[in-house]
Write a structure and sequence with these properties.
Number of helices: 4
Structural class: alpha+beta
Strand order of the largest sheet: 1-2-3-4-5-7-6
CATH class: Alpha Beta
CATH architecture: 3-Layer(aba) Sandwich
Strand content: 25-35%
Bound molecules: coenzyme A
Keywords: Acyltransferase, Transferase
Largest sheet: 7 strands, mixed
Protein name: Pat
Organism: Kitasatospora phosalacinea
Order of helices and strands: EHHEEEHEHEE
Number of strands: 7
CATH superfamily: Gcn5-related N-acetyltransferase (GNAT)
CATH topology: Aminopeptidase
Radius of gyration: 17 Å
GO molecular function: acyltransferase activity, transferring groups other than amino-acyl groups
Helix content: 25-40%
């Protein structure tokens, strides 16, 4: 018996979700400084990123009435191997669905999975001001760890960015390898 298709809540992203994700993020690229890109992306760029990273980095979407209404995903913080236990996390909720708990539901799943995989830190880069994003990150235990003044110029002005860090494990032990998503023994994904 086939299971009914999930229409509400959070699940792992699939290739067919990415055009809707692209549209959600392009809205913010066009209209705001929360994303420092100055031109919209094509769905293919999202598909390439997802395909390149999906085994090691979780991507979740939030569904409302069967439609993709938000995305939270993890990505490499930097390519050099000593950074392997640090990841960058990003979250976008469609303008029509903000303020209804979707950002929190997405981050809840994303951070639990990253912790289960063995990541030590999640980093968020937030262009400032962004009261909603700062509130969300701090609610999930991210701490402010620095700021770059006038880091980018967009929509006629200079904008600062802030760095927020969430640490998962506070011990000094050498870390084990990151667990690929397919090998997680819990139901986290
Ligand atoms: C930031 C964002 C992801 C938050 O998602 P959301 O679904 O709107 O947030 P939620 O409804 O889950 O709220 C989470 C918490 O953040 C706080 N919050 C959300 N929006 C806020 C706002 N505009 N001002 C102040 N606090 C806000 C709420 O107080 C809430 O905490 P609570 O549950 O204790 O009330 C969403 O607003 C968004 O996509 N914004 C535009 C894109 C963006 O800035 N992304 C982040 C890039 S770093």
């Amino acid at each position: 018996m086939s299971t009914p298709e999930q229409r509400e809540g959070v699940r792992l992203a699939r290739a067919e979700d990415l055009p809707a994700v692209c549209e959600i993020v392009n809205f913010y690229i066009r209209t705001s400084t929360v994303n420092f890109r100055t031109s919209p992306q094509l769905p293919e760029e999202w598909e390439q990123d997802w395909a390149a990273h999906r085994e090691r980095y979780p991507w979740y979407v939030a569904l409302v009435g069967g439609e993709v209404a938000g995305i939270a995903y993890a990505a490499p913080w930097k390519a050099r191997n000593a950074y392997d236990w640090t990841t960058e996390t990003t979250v976008y909720v469609s303008d029509r669905h903000r303020g209804r708990g979707l950002g929190s539901a997405l981050y809840e799943r994303l951070l639990k999975t990253l912790e289960a995989q063995g990541y030590r830190s999640a980093m968020a880069v937030v262009s400032l001001p962004n009261e909603g994003s700062v509130a969300l990150h701090e609610a999930f235990g991210f701490e402010s760890v620095g700021r770059i003044h006038a880091a980018g110029h967009k929509l006629g002005g200079w904008h600062d960015i802030g760095f927020w860090q969430r640490r998962f494990v506070l011990d000094e032990d050498a870390p084990g390898p990151i667990t690929p998503l397919a090998d997680l023994s819990t139901e986290a994904p």
